[in-house]
Amino acid sequence: MKTKKIFLSGCRLLIDAENMRGLYDFDTANRRAKECGKRLMTNREQESLSGCENWWDSELRGRWFRVPARRPLKGILRVFNRFFMVNVFLPAGGYRDYVTGMPDYVGDYGYYWSSSPCNGRIGHSLFFGYNGVRLLNVLNRSGEFSVRCVKDME
Asked: What pLDDT, on a 0 to 100 scale, did the predictor assign at position 104?
């Protein structure tokens, strides 16, 4: 699978170019990523991603994020930072309701699990739609969301 180099929250990462197929509950998402030698973004990394320039793509039904591809330059060299950005697309895969088992809001909203549990039955996630991006920590971990894996660069 193709990857892109990105820099989030002080970490150099390789992010998969595509989601894992299907929707997964919190525990299964983290287990499947680990089986592939990868992981999900942490809540802190998702927070950093949500702060990046981003825009809704009404044709592809998802959100683009302009993400640093390397550690930002400082001082007078910071004018070159814009040359070290990559675009990462996250499709709005909706979610599978943990009560009904039916997919909802496919193409309208994106929900992505982080690797960070909150407490008990709650996990952290990234949420977006056409009107913006938010971090959520009030969702039942049994709900099934999209998964985008990352790998730490050595």
From this structure: 92
CA–CA distance from 3 to each of 7, 15, 93, 150 (Å)?
A: 13, 5, 20, 9
Instruction: Give the neighbor-by-neighbor strand order of the sheet with 54-57.
Output: 54-57, 62-68, 85-91
Q: Write down the pLDDT at residue 134.
A: 95
* pLDDT tens digit sequence for 73-112: 555 555 555 557 788 999 999 999 878 888 999 999 999 9
Distance CA 47, CA 56 (A): 18
Q: Domain count for the chain, please give it.
A: 1
| Structural domain range at position 38 | 3-152
Q: Which residues contact 120 (CB under 8 A, 6 or more apart)?
A: none
CA–CA gap between residue 131 and residue 117 (Å, rounded): 26
